[in-house]
Amino acid sequence: MKAALHPAEERGKADFGWLNSHHSFSFGNYYNPEKIQFGALRVLNDDIVAPAMGFQTHSHANMEIISIPIYGTLAHKDSTGNQKNIESGEVQIMSAGTGISHSEFNASDKEPVNFLQIWILPEKMNVPPRYEQRFFDLEANRNKMVKIVSPDGSENSVQINQKAIFYQGLLDLDQTASLTLEKDFGLYVFLIDGSIKMDSQILQKRDSLAITEANSVAIKALENSRVLAIVVPLV
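^ thats the sequence. predicted structure below, dont judge the formating
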């Protein structure tokens, strides 16, 4: 197994007042030639949006965009007629395909919203745009990595236009969860909260670990933790 630790403090940063963002990969004014992407994973932004503020209407094409609120409520509106609020515990997927315009705002005028904005390069180009949103009860499935995104929508996950699988889990102290990987796939683990150990690496809050050349991976919680694991094709 090969593993590269990406400490939280080494992420790119952007502070626009209304938006405080940390970038795991090159994005906007942050450029790191060693962190362009990880296989099909192109963007992982950790965004905090001030009350009643947000991203004005803008367009995307041929990108799979996943939003995962950590706390607060995100208001979404797009050119295909979707107008939704996305709460913590929910996952949203938007396949931009041939083109879609959307806006994302903090639905609260009092509290900030923190969400992960993740971009995955698509398997097929120029597909019709699509939208899907679903709640996942992580609390009822403690100490298990719950499949939340997949190419086939299996296990009630939201469907993505790529051979990528996302898992999210709440792990209690000293609990271990395992994931298996196929050849030519990598695993990117982003620790939302807590502390975990993977092989000889210890991750703290918002650290990441990029793993290749592994058949299986064990995640051990050193304290109560919330973990996001993204399996993506490397070729």
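The two ends are 17 Å apart (CA to CA).
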